[in-house]
Amino acid sequence: MSLSRVYDAVIVGGGPGGMAAALALAARGLSVCLADALGELAPLPASGFDLRVVALNRSSQQFLTHLGVWPHLDKTRIAAFEAMRVWDAQGFGEIVFDAGTLATSCLGHIVETANLMHALEQVRAAHDNLTVMRGVRVTSIHCQSDGVLARLSDGGRISGQVLIGADGGRSVVREYCRIEAWTRSYEQVAVVANLRMSDGHANTAWQRFMPSGPLAVLPLPGDYASIVWTTTPQSAGELLALGSDEFAQAVGEAFAWRRGEVVWSGSRGSFPLFRVRARHYVATRVALMGDAAHTVHPLAGQGLNLALMDAAALADVLGEVFASGGDIGTRTALRRYERWRKTHNLATQYTMDGLRWLFGNSSTPLRILRNLGLSAASRAGPFKTALARLACGLSGDLPPAARPPLDS
């Protein structure tokens, strides 16, 4: 294949964030090509649930509804959570958020990544101006004053006015375009598994902070739950090597038996945790979004939510320029996107790192202070409500397509 195809926008990376950006731009009338190194979409598990799940907040739900994606999700595989409960394993501090505080039906939804990808794909099929190329890698990127050209592993070439890097924390777009980034390992590994507890999950997202890292228990349909257990690499290896009964016992102890015994657990997986912070989100006719620009610690499940807000902001900025007949790849246009999103993303990243450090510190004075702080925050009505709104994506400078109110 040697044909060179020209589009308004080229997106590299076909995960949920990249696909959402492609749909949002196509809905604005741009011709879009998305190139993804991975092959065809993985099917949903015939039984049980996938290990890869995401916690979608209310602004993400609104954006996906705006794109027409939300109705295509398999609702039998989604769990809404009506409360969040967070507590310190080394003390008495605890805080609870509930949907009633925000006068909304739920705080968010736990969705399998595969379920979300299939819903995105169904909407993609309705856009004639969106081309998706799977199983091809970008082998070079050439940025010029009037456009950007990407060469592909199959010999093809695609070009556009702008190229968007949505290809994850180890972004090849970021490397090819020589955008400086700070990358640091958290020296932690997240162990993931699905399980059932004797007392169910009470439609609540639970999180217990321990010195080695937090254990999150997220509701799935029925009485199933997904766990994300962040710990040291050594402990992660030991957890992965345990038999089912021993693993169930370890989870129950780490969770302080809040929901009874673990009566069943399925297969397990793991992934290392690292932080990426790009110095700039944009270069000549190039914009980074999602993990390519910023990865955050998963302790609050904000990674994909940030990526979806990046996608919404990009579509808003570039769509406005496109509608006026302007050049969507100019530095002026791309810098508008960067200024919009960078401050919020940095604040979230530093907040997650601060919480990780605070709750991972066993210093007696700090332990006392953080427990007092949790207890005080739990009693401070307006402050607690503000925290809940922020965590659920109901505040901040949101793109129009993602703004509340929501009542579903």
**Number of folding domains?**
2
What profile does the largest beta sheet have? 8 strands, mixed
Beta content comes to 25-35%
Give the CA-CA distance, first to last residue: 47 Å
Shape: globular
Q: Provide the CATH topology of the largest domain.
A: FAD/NAD(P)-binding domain
**Second CATH tier, the architecture of the largest domain:** 3-Layer(bba) Sandwich
Our Rg estimate from Cα atoms comes to 21 Å
CATH superfamily of the largest domain: FAD/NAD(P)-binding domain
Helix content: 25-40%
Mean pLDDT: 92
CATH class of the largest domain: Alpha Beta
Show unreliable segments.
Answer: none
Q: Given the structure, what is the number of helices?
A: 10
The overall strand count is 18
Summarize the structure.
With 408 residues, this protein is an alpha/beta fold. The chain has helices at 16-27, 58-66, 113-124, 172-176, 233-241, 244-254, 303-323, 331-359, 364-379, 381-391, and strands spanning 4-12, 32-36, 53-57, 79-81, 83-88, 94-98, 108-112, 130-134, 138-144, 147-152, 157-165, 181-197, 204-210, 213-219, 224-231, 262-278, 282-283, 286-288.
Q: What attributes characterize this protein structure?
A:
globular, FAD/NAD(P)-binding domain, alpha/beta, 18 strands, 408 residues, D-Amino Acid Oxidase, Chain A, domain 2
What would your notes on this structure say?
Helix 1 (16-27) runs parallel beside helix 3. The protein is globular. The chain contains ten helices and 18 strands. With 408 residues, it is of the alpha/beta class. The termini are far apart. It folds into two domains: 4-76 and 111-184 and 275-362, 3-Layer(bba) Sandwich (FAD/NAD(P)-binding domain), CATH 3.50.50; 192-274, D-Amino Acid Oxidase, subunit A, domain 2 (D-Amino Acid Oxidase, Chain A, domain 2, 2-Layer Sandwich). The strands form three sheets. Strands 1, 2, 8, 9, 10, 11, 17 and 18 form an eight-stranded mixed β-sheet that branches. Strands 6-5-13-14-15-12-16 form a seven-stranded mixed β-sheet, sandwiched between helices. Strand 13 and strand 14 (213-219) form a beta hairpin.
